[in-house]
Amino acid sequence: MSVLSIGLLYGASTLVVMFAGMPIAFALGAVATLFMLFFMPAGSVDTISQNVYEEMASITLLSIPLFILKGSAIGRSRAGQDLYSAIHVWMYRIPGGLGIANVFACALFAAMAGSSPATCSAIGSAGIPEMRKRGYSPGFASGIIAAGGTLGILLPPSITMILYAVAAEQSLGRLFLAAIGPALLLVTLFAGYAAWRYRREYRDALALHQKSGTHSELLSKSTLTLREKLQLLPRVLPFVILLTGVMIALYGGYATPSETAGLGAVLALALIASIYSVWKPRDLAPILTSTLRESTMLMFIIGMSLLYSYVMSYLHISQSSAQAIVELELSRWVLLAAILLMVVVLGFFLPPVSIILMTAPIILPPLKAAGFDLIWFGVVMTIVMEMGLIHPPVGLNIFVIKSIAPDIPLGDVIWGVMPFVVLMMISIVLLCVFPGIATWFSDAIMGT
Amino acid sequence: MVHGLERIETEPAAAPAAVAAPAAAAEHILAAINALVVKLSSVALVAAGFVLTYSVIVRYFLKISTDWQDEMSVFLIVGAVFMSAAAIQAVRGHVAVEAITELLPPRANMVRQILVDAASLAFCAYFAWKSWLLLMEAWTEGFHSGSTWGPPLWIPYSLMAVGMTLLSLQILLQVVRGLWPRGAMR
Q: Count of A–B CB contacts within 8 Å?
């Protein structure tokens, strides 16, 4: 059989078993094993367990469960609400400050927890009721939280980025640094939009008030004393120190990324034990069980995806597909657009983890040949996958919002989120025009 | 899942006595094992965090070179992941694409679920078998990891083999449960 027909068969059988609803990890493993049996030399299938073990036994990959543990410890404590309240009391006087405070709280929390749904539910469960109480429209409030939450997969330490670094064989430290500029850009765009939208909603409320006397909470003012402002700081500062400490340990060269993960997890557990008295086995059990559940599920997908791409590469499927894409001689921007569109479509069905590991061997060589910087592309691809978290049909974050604020109609949430999808598209265009937004910072710190 | 309406139309065949009792007993035993494994794996995960923290401390404050810490945490985490796979499968925690399955009528979906579970079982059992062969080889040939610490590789391999075996048993029980739903067991 030619490489083309084997490749088509490989792709088709993967689609069939996946859409039949077989767990992604087992589906990838089973297809890879069958193709090893039929198309690879006798005996190669004898080493599947060894293959998977050796791919998985990488300390970089195994830092993922520890990052999840850190996120879960912080996510399940009251840290999110406290962080939110602390930022809120300092910013509520600025017009639109409440919305901006929510964006900032999401960004900070995302950097600490590294998880998008965890950020949405931690900040959203305090932020959405507060914004609605102050007269923000429900759609606007949910849009801010859903979009802010997506920063979890962009800001370091992002699990998505760890996998990209492994799949693309790029420096993880550099990738983490390259994400900071674009993340700040997104935070600025989100905050700017929040302020603009607030003004509009305020103007409408004022006009309505003058016309019919309907009062909106948007128009009422409140004040807080300095005492109230200072009260929350002692609870929040340790977490901010944890965040900066871990970053310094990583970039100061004191710790490897995996050691950073271990250190972060231990410090997060120590913090929730000392600040929120969460230390008894009974209190810790839900944190550990959810960490284990997510980690095992992810690590199985990762291990099997790596087996899957090993087979794809042994059978020359990935090389031939990559070659075929290069030979199309598309202009670089058409190529980039086509690849990003494919990532978007795959995002309708698959989690980012499998998208990265399954497509990297096919899409990265043509991108490299077209002269794109793979660190830069990692950042762009992550932002595209962030969009997948908030746009239908999957939009994981939309469902998180639905679960913390069930009374907001789904339509309102979706319309509230759309402007943020547009902002993310704008940021991708900006990144294409000014790639330095991503690469400047990492080059400045780690050299070119 | 069995819906009331369908049970009248097509009462599932009662499980033969030879299946019902052992299956129920096996479910109990496996649930107990899973509960224990989840506890041990949680401890292993936290322990890995401490090992890596220790590694940073001894290297930067005590200036002692580190050799075993990375590998130790790999063993702890790989072990936790493989061992807890069955517990995760018990709650259907291994995610699947649900785009089409949601559109199927309940009865067709039941059949689909059994077929998919059987396929997962075939793969996991095959993988478990290969893991046992790998473990035996590592044991008899005395495989060691290539690092300076050089721990024997039968340790992580045995966790992988046992974990995949537990996972296969868990899926087998789910297939049995799919063929003879709880009502028909009694």
A: 175
